[in-house]
């Protein structure tokens, strides 16, 4: 337990929208020093793109359900756009429909962040808190990876295949 306390106290705080103050690699290095091999293995299995909390209890099970509902809503938004209808979403705020894809993605990330806040509430110095920290760090890393100029180049290469041949 004292190692978990030390780990959480030594990590920099995370704020939505900031540049990640620590890399995922640095986070894992610190975690490996202070957590048991069982906890490190669990930490490695949790990922923003694939939350599988089947072996978890409490908060992480709620996080898995929440992420599944968000993924369902994202799928519904895409289907509704193809069918030119209003999406029937249950987890994401209705305002998520507005804006360009980049803005929608940022809103989704903000929503996930806020949901993770509720998962870790009252879970001080627990493995759940460490797992949520990792997920939040992944959100910050993803947000920080958005590059409008590079995204426009990729879009142009998809829309105009001749550009791909030139590059």
How is this fold's topology laid out?
Elements: H1 2-10, H2 24-34, H3 37-45, H4 59-82, H5 101-120, H6 127-145, H7 148-159, H8 161-166
Helix pairs in contact: 4-5, 5-6
Provide structural commentary.
By secondary structure, the chain is mostly helical. The chain is built from 8 helices and no strands. Helix 4 runs antiparallel to helix 5 and helix 5 packs antiparallel against helix 6. The mean pLDDT is 84.
* Proportion of beta-strand residues: under 5%
Stretches where pLDDT falls below 50 for ≥5 residues?
Answer: none
Nearest-angstrom radius of gyration? 18 Å
Query: How is the main sheet built?
Result: none
Helix fraction by DSSP (H/I, runs of at least 4): 55-70%
**Can you write the helix and strand succession as a string?**
HHHHHHHH
- Intertermini distance: 53 Å
Mean pLDDT: 84
Going by helix content, strand content and strand pairing, the class is mainly alpha
| Bulk shape | globular
This entry's quaternary arrangement is single chain
The total count of strands amounts to 0
Number of helices: 8
């Amino acid at each position: 337990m004292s190692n978990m306390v030390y780990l959480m106290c030594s990590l920099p705080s995370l704020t939505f929208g900031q540049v990640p103050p620590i890399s995922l690699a640095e986070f894992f290095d610190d975690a490996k020093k202070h957590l048991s091999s069982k906890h490190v293995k669990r930490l490695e299995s949790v990922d923003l793109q694939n939350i599988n909390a089947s072996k978890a209890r409490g908060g992480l099970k709620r996080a898995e359900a929440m992420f599944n509902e968000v993924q369902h809503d994202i799928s519904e938004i895409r289907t509704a756009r193809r069918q030119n209808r209003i999406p029937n979403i249950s987890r994401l705020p209705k305002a998520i429909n507005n804006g360009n894809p980049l803005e929608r993605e940022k809103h989704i990330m903000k929503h996930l962040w806020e949901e993770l806040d509720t998962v870790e509430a009252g879970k001080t110095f627990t493995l759940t808190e460490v797992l949520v920290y990792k997920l939040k760090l992944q959100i910050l890393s993803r947000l920080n990876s958005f590059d409008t100029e590079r995204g426009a180049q990729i879009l142009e290469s998809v829309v105009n295949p001749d550009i791909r041949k030139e590059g």
